[in-house]
Amino acid sequence: MLALSERGTQLSNFIDTFLNYIAPHQCILCAAPSSAALCTACYPSLPRWEASNSCPRCGHINTQGHLCGACQTAPPAFDRTYAAFLYTEPISSLIQAAKFANRWSLLPPLGAYLAQITPEEQRPNRLIALPLHPARLRERGFNQAVEIARPIAKLHQLPLEIDTLQRIKNTEHQARLNANARWQNMRGAFVYSGNLTGQRVAIIDDVMTSGASLNAAAKALKLAGAIEVQAWVVARTP
């Protein structure tokens, strides 16, 4: 029998899911009537990430499109990064609301925009949503990376994997740690249960800050045979 607190969490998650489907839509930024979470007037105002001004490997900005110093000396396990936006206001508030205030209906529109900015010539063979640990998934009720990845898979007609990459360490929240601790925190956090020999893969997530989580996931995918791992994120920190 479920504990009372767990039953309460499940009921809360069910209600949030129901409301996300049936509630009338309005723009989260200006409250104007909108069929999507963001109206067409607000989209152009969002802070864009620009590939031409960023490190092609980690997405760090202000490198004029060249590899940053960190990627030249100690490159991450992933090979390329694409981001739709910079992780500044109002994007940071949108993502925080989606993850921690159960406004997950914000995520698919952001994923659809991410799908639009990834170039045709860099298309992977498959998409993999960065997983949460099962305990974190039960707590939150959804995986933000999956909600972002679904419209991308549909628009690009790519297979989406949501359970082959598994998070086996219930790590400390990355946001609570400094940069060095984030990399230590993620060591050995992921395993991949399939065979990726000769495959090009894109990992989908909401935000890249240090890149530690995506690096740990990319290591697991390359151990499974992937020849290239791209990181596709809604937002990259400046």
The number of helices is 8
Give the radius of gyration: 18 Å
**Count of discrete domains:** 1
Termini separation: 47 Å
Order of helices and strands: HHEHHEHHEEHEEHE
* Helix-residue proportion: 25-40%
CATH-scheme architecture: 3-Layer(aba) Sandwich
Pfam families: DZR_2 (PF18912)
Protein name: ComF family protein
InterPro entries: ComF/GntX_DNA_util-trans, DZR_2, PRTase-like, PRTase_dom
Family: Belongs to the ComF/GntX family.
What does it look like?
It is a single chain. The chain has 238 residues and is an alpha/beta fold. The chain has one domain (45-236): 3-Layer(aba) Sandwich (Rossmann fold). It has helices at 4-22, 69-73, 91-100, 107-117, 134-140, 144-156, 179-185, 212-223; strands spanning 80-86, 126-129, 160-161, 165-167, 190-192, 200-208, 228-236. It has a 5-stranded parallel β-sheet with strand order 1-7-6-2-3, with helices on both faces. Strands 4-5 form a two-stranded antiparallel ribbon. Strand 6 (200-208), helix 8 (212-223) and strand 7 form a beta-alpha-beta unit. It starts with a helix and ends with a strand.
Secondary-structure map:
Elements: H1 4-22, H2 69-73, E1 80-86, H3 91-100, H4 107-117, E2 126-129, H5 134-140, H6 144-156, E3 160-161, E4 165-167, H7 179-185, E5 190-192, E6 200-208, H8 212-223, E7 228-236
Parallel strand pairs: 1-7, 2-3, 2-6, 6-7
Antiparallel strand pairs: 4-5
Domain Double zinc ribbon: 19-72
Family: Belongs to the ComF/GntX family.
InterPro entries: ComF/GntX_DNA_util-trans (IPR051910), DZR_2 (IPR044005), PRTase-like (IPR029057), PRTase_dom (IPR000836)
